[in-house]
Design brief:
alpha/beta, Aspartate Aminotransferase, domain 1, Aspartate Aminotransferase, domain 2, 2 domains, seven-stranded mixed beta sheet, four-stranded antiparallel beta sheet, 14 helices, globular, binds glutamine
C-alpha cells in the first residue's frame, strides 16, 4: 500500500538554527548562530532542581502550572511594572516560549483570518499561523534601522485582521519598541477586533538604561493581548523549555483548553526550582547589565573590522553588515564563514518570507567572553 501525505507546511524545511548549528558542529566552528548561552547555568539553580526531585516533585504538575511559580511570575510583574497579574486566572506555565506562541495562535486563529507580522520575524510565527489556516500579512522592515511605519500598518488592518504579532525586544533585529510605539499601536488597534500576541522572551535584555516594556503595562493593549515569555532566556537554560503565557482570564480559559491537550503540563521539578530561585528579583534586574557588557565587548572588538555593526538595543543578538567585504548572498556568505573561518552565524534573510538580501548576518553574543574574543580575532581579519 502506498500512503501519501499532503503537507500542511509546503514552504517549511529544517529551521535555519538547526542547519547552522549542524554546520558549525561539522566544521568545528564557533557557534554564534543558534541563540543559546555556551556558559553554564548557576549551580544554585541546578541544585534547586535536584532538591525538588529528591523532595518527590516528580509527577504531573497542575495543568496551569505549579502555584509557587505562578505566584513568583505575578510578583515579578508587580516588582518591575507595579501591575497586578492574577496568578490563578491569567498565568499559564508552558513548555517554553514557542509553545506559548503556538498555543496562543491555535487558540485565536481560524481559517482565512489575517495575521500581521513584522519581518524580519522569528521563524515560528508564520508556519504556526498557516497551520491553522490563517493568512500571514508581513510588514517588511529593512536594515539598518528596521523602523515601523505605523501609518502603513494601520492601512493593513481590516475586518479580517484577527491578530498582530510583535516581538519586543526583537529577535533578530535587536530593536526595542518603547512606550511610545506601544501607545501608538494601542491607538491603531482601538475600535478593531484584532488581538495582540506579544512575544516578550527577551523582555529583560534591554540596554543603555532602557526599561523593560511589556504590553501588560499598557491597559488598552493588555485587554486584547496574549504575552509569551521564556525562562530559557532569563536563566540561561534554553534546554529546559519552561515559559509562560499571560492573558486576560477569558482568553486564558480558552488558551488552557488547547494547552491541556497540547502538552497537558510542564516538567515539575524545574517549576519548583525556578519559583524558588526568582524570589530574588535583583537577579532579573541585573541581567541587562550582564548582557550589555557582552554586547559591548563584541561591538568594540569589531569596530576596526570590515564588518559594520548595526545598532542593538536589546536581545542577545547583534547584526553585522558585511557589504564592505562581499556582495555574496547571505546564506552563501554565512556558510563560507562557517566552513572556511570557523564562525557560524545566521543569515538575516532567513527571517523574511520573500527573498531578501541585505548582506547582514545575525550573531549571538550570549557566549563566554573567551568565545567572543576568539570570534573577534577571526572576524577582525576578514
Ligand atoms: N531562539 C533561538 C534563536 O533565535 C532558536 C531556537 C530554535 O532553534 N528554535 O536563535
Amino acid at each position: 500500500m502506498n500512503f501519501s501525505l499532503i503537507t500542511k507546511l509546503p514552504h517549511v524545511g529544517t529551521t535555519i538554527f538547526t542547519k547552522m548549528t549542524m554546520l558549525a558542529n561539522e566544521y568545528g566552528a564557533l557557534n554564534l548562530s543558534q541563540g543559546f548561552p555556551d556558559f553554564d547555568t548557576d549551580p544554585r539553580l541546578t541544585g534547586l532542581v535536584a532538591d525538588a526531585m529528591k523532595e518527590g516533585h516528580n509527577q504531573y504538575a497542575p495543568m496551569i502550572g505549579v502555584q509557587a511559580l505562578r505566584d513568583t511570575i505575578a510578583k515579578k510583574y508587580e516588582s518591575i511594572y507595579n501591575i497586578l497579574v492574577d496568578a490563578q486566572d491569567e498565568i499559564t506555565v508552558t513548555a517554553g516560549g514557542t509553545q506559548a506562541i503556538f498555543t496562543a495562535i491555535a487558540t485565536i486563529v481560524r481559517p482565512e483570518d489575517e495575521v500581521i507580522i513584522f519581518e524580519p520575524a522569528y521563524d515560528c510565527y508564520a508556519p504556526t499561523v498557516e497551520l491553522f489556516g490563517g493568512k500571514v500579512v508581513p510588514v517588511r522592515l529593512l536594515a539598518p534601522d528596521f523602523r515601523i511605519d505605523w501609518t502603513y500598518v494601520k492601512g493593513l488592518i481590516n475586518d479580517r485582521t484577527r491578530l498582530v504579532i510583535i516581538n519586543n525586544p526583537s529577535n533578530p533585529t535587536g530593536k526595542v519598541l518603547g512606550r511610545e510605539d506601544l501607545e501608538t499601536l494601542a491607538v491603531l488597534l482601538d475600535g478593531t477586533n484584532a488581538l495582540l500576541l506579544s512575544d516578550e522572551v527577551y523582555e529583560h535584555l534591554v540596554f543603555d538604561g532602557a526599561q523593560p516594556q511589556s504590553v501588560l503595562n499598557i491597559p488598552r493593549l493588555r485587554e486584547r493581548s496574549f504575552v509569551a515569555a521564556s525562562f530559557g532566556k532569563l536563566l540561561h537554560t534554553t534546554g529546559w523549555k519552561v515559559g509562560y503565557c499571560i492573558a486576560p482570564a477569558a482568553f486564558t480559559h480558552e488558551f488552557r483548553k488547547v494547552h491541556q491537550f497540547n502538552v497537558f503540563s510542564v516538567n515539575t521539578p524545574m517549576q519548583y526550582a525556578i519559583a524558588e530561585y526568582l524570589h530574588d528579583i535583583a537577579y532579573v534586574r541585573g541581567l541587562a547589565d550582564f548582557f550589555e557588557k557582552k554586547r559591548d565587548l563584541l561591538k568594540a572588538g569589531l569596530q576596526q573590522s570590515r564588518f559594520h555593526v548595526l545598532p542593538c538595543e536589546g536581545t542577545y543578538f547583534l547584526n553585522l553588515d558585511y557589504s564592505a567585504i562581499s556582495s555574496e548572498k547571505e546564506v552563501d556568505f554565512a556558510c563560507m564563514l562557517t566552513r572556511q573561518h570557523k564562525v557560524a552565524t545566521i543569515p538575516l534573510s532567513a527571517f523574511y518570507k520573500e527573498p531578501t538580501d541585505q548582506q547582514v548576518l545575525r550573531v549571538c553574543f550570549a557566549k563566554q567572553d573567551d568565545t567572543l574574543q576568539k570570534a573577534i580575532s577571526i572576524l577582525a581579519h576578514i
